[in-house]
């Protein structure tokens, strides 16, 4: 089976490929000749996943899936949420986003947060959504060099290390994206 993953984020593509069985071949946006930036104008994580999947299906005619993810911090009423990648503004910059988040949490005791991923699958004319959530907390000092985004400051419940201290394989197994991808795999009956 061949599916387009509506992403050019090489980190995400690597993470997803680690989780999928060999019987599913992933094509990136680059592989299908999609070089334009797909608009992410929805106000929810679910909405952006749907926008991206629909864009590829409608414009290129492929069965595909797209994801959108965000970090939701309890004390900040769910921020940065759908704006996680651009929390500190344009251009996207992980370090600036982390700095802004740490500054916004300064003096706040409740550091509970969760990562949320929604995958939208467009397959043979039908659309399905799969959600993965991992709870944890934000720490104030960056730890680890693996991963991307907010990984250096997020510690999942039940773990001592940040996502950036885990190997890619460890993170992929327990992460919000890993949970959503497992639901996708279960749906596809693998």
UniProtKB/TrEMBL annotation:
<keyword id="KW-0547">Nucleotide-binding</keyword>
<feature type="binding site">
    <location>
        <position position="171"/>
    </location>
    <ligand>
        <name>substrate</name>
    </ligand>
</feature>
<feature type="binding site">
    <location>
        <begin position="176"/>
        <end position="177"/>
    </location>
    <ligand>
        <name>substrate</name>
    </ligand>
</feature>
<keyword id="KW-0479">Metal-binding</keyword>
<comment type="function">
    <text>Pyrophosphatase that catalyzes the hydrolysis of nucleoside triphosphates to their monophosphate derivatives, with a high preference for the non-canonical purine nucleotides XTP (xanthosine triphosphate), dITP (deoxyinosine triphosphate) and ITP. Seems to function as a house-cleaning enzyme that removes non-canonical purine nucleotides from the nucleotide pool, thus preventing their incorporation into DNA/RNA and avoiding chromosomal lesions.</text>
</comment>
<feature type="binding site">
    <location>
        <begin position="148"/>
        <end position="151"/>
    </location>
    <ligand>
        <name>substrate</name>
    </ligand>
</feature>
<dbReference type="InterPro" id="IPR002637">
    <property type="entry name" value="RdgB/HAM1"/>
</dbReference>
<dbReference type="InterPro" id="IPR029001">
    <property type="entry name" value="ITPase-like_fam"/>
</dbReference>
<keyword id="KW-0546">Nucleotide metabolism</keyword>
<keyword id="KW-0378">Hydrolase</keyword>
<feature type="binding site">
    <location>
        <begin position="7"/>
        <end position="12"/>
    </location>
    <ligand>
        <name>substrate</name>
    </ligand>
</feature>
<protein>
    <recommendedName>
        <fullName>dITP/XTP pyrophosphatase</fullName>
        <ecNumber>3.6.1.66</ecNumber>
    </recommendedName>
</protein>
<feature type="binding site">
    <location>
        <position position="68"/>
    </location>
    <ligand>
        <name>Mg(2+)</name>
    </ligand>
</feature>
<comment type="subunit">
    <text>Homodimer.</text>
</comment>
<keyword id="KW-0460">Magnesium</keyword>
<comment type="similarity">
    <text>Belongs to the HAM1 NTPase family.</text>
</comment>
<feature type="active site" description="Proton acceptor">
    <location>
        <position position="68"/>
    </location>
</feature>
<dbReference type="Pfam" id="PF01725">
    <property type="entry name" value="Ham1p_like"/>
</dbReference>
<feature type="binding site">
    <location>
        <position position="69"/>
    </location>
    <ligand>
        <name>substrate</name>
    </ligand>
</feature>
<dbReference type="InterPro" id="IPR020922">
    <property type="entry name" value="dITP/XTP_pyrophosphatase"/>
</dbReference>
